[in-house]
Amino acid sequence: MNAIAEPENAGEAHGRAASKSAVILISGRGSNMQAIVEAGTGADVRAVISNRPDAKGLEWARGQGFATEAIDHTAFKTRDAFDAALAEAIERYDAGIILLAGFMRILGDGFIRRHERRILNIHPSLLPAFPGLHTHRRAIEAGVKVHGATVHFVTSELDGGPAVIQGVVPVMPDDTEETLAARVLQVEHRIYPQAVRWWVEGKIEFNAAGVVSVRGTGVITDSMISPGTAQ
Length: 231
Ligand code: GAR
Hints:
Blueprint: E1 21-26, H1 31-39, E2 44-50, H2 56-63, E3 67-70, H3 79-92, E4 97-100, H4 109-114, E5 119-123, H5 135-142, E6 146-153, E7 163-170, H6 177-200, E8 204-206, E9 212-214
Parallel strand pairs: 1-2, 1-4, 2-3, 4-5
Antiparallel strand pairs: 5-6, 6-7, 8-9
Helix pairs in contact: 1-6
This protein binds glycinamide ribonucleotide.
């Protein structure tokens, strides 16, 4: 049994919460998808779906023998119509969990409620700092000394759902958006597979307030201080 508490309105999701089956949604390069697949998390990836037919990651997924689908959002008149097509595809693959891996479409409330506590996302900042776009640029502009990435469950609040795991990196004085993005991406590739593994192992729990904890995780005793002292 997966330990994720069943939301009250889970409806049809009941039973499938225990499933290891996953569908990965991408919009572009798909390096997080690749990290999840290569890490061997135990998830049974049933399909990779993109809202962009030209997403680079689709080629890689096809090459790995995964079922792939492109559901081009520009072909739909409304967000609801796109969401319905997406939900129908996900239904077909009987996905226990939906993994957003660089999926750049905002999902509608109905879709999110229907898959409550079954959608994970990776966001390139230490949420709740810098929700939304251009996170690395904004981190540099704000002058923060640490930055990072967050894997969280998706709720109707943009980038606002409960965090499962976060990875921290230093911000260097000479960082550009690109160098910082590259450093954050490395940590993304570590934390997303870890979160998926925890899901598969049934270790993720929600408390009454909806905050996530992970059973049996290690104790961290050191802290990161940035910048470091001069050599
Ligand atoms: C990643 O940095 C991911 O955190 C970010 O897009 C990139 C996708 O890279 N996601 C978001 O900004 C979501 N709002 P990838 O396609 O190589 O995994």
